[in-house]
Amino acid sequence: MRIGELARLTGTTPKAIRLYEARGLMGAVTRQGSYRQYGDEDVARVQLIRKAQALGFRLVQLDGLAQMHTPKGWSRMAALLETRRATVAKELLQLQQVAEQIAELEATLRKCDAVGAPLLPSCDALTL
């Protein structure tokens, strides 16, 4: 298949595929004359790149993806995934803390509203 069909199948653009190729993410791409020819493996590779990007990976982090089938490539990708997983866990904790702070503020606002008090620092000390 040609680049346009690969782009259509993977939901990307020919320009993006050329960028992936220039960065070495696509491995060796066969040519028929002056046209690039792609196969099912290339579809899978572009889908993997797109999925990694959707999960927050940058292209620079994916450099060397073409060597994924080697033990070194798998180890490198596993390390990237573990680092990303740790980052997501930290972000989840931070979001949970923000959610708790929002709940506390909401409770304070409801308490002030229930007693008809203006929103002042002393309103938080009011009891119902």
Structure description:
The chain is mainly α. The protein folds into 2 domains: 1-59, Multidrug-efflux Transporter Regulator, Chain: A, Domain 2 (Orthogonal Bundle), CATH 1.10.1660; 70-128. Helix content is 63%, strand content 5%. The chain has 5 helices and 2 strands; from the N terminus they run H-H-E-E-H-H-H. The chain has helices spanning 3-10, 14-22, 40-54, 59-62, 71-115, and strands spanning 30-32, 35-37. Strands 1-2 form a two-stranded antiparallel ribbon. The chain is elongated and about 80 Å long. The model has no long low-confidence stretch (mean pLDDT 85).
Keywords:
single chain; 128 residues; mainly alpha; Multidrug-efflux Transporter Regulator, Chain: A, Domain 2; 5 helices; 2 strands; elongated
Show the helix and strand layout.
Blueprint: H1 3-10, H2 14-22, E1 30-32, E2 35-37, H3 40-54, H4 59-62, H5 71-115
Antiparallel strand pairs: 1-2
Quick summary:
The protein is mainly alpha-helical and 128 residues long.
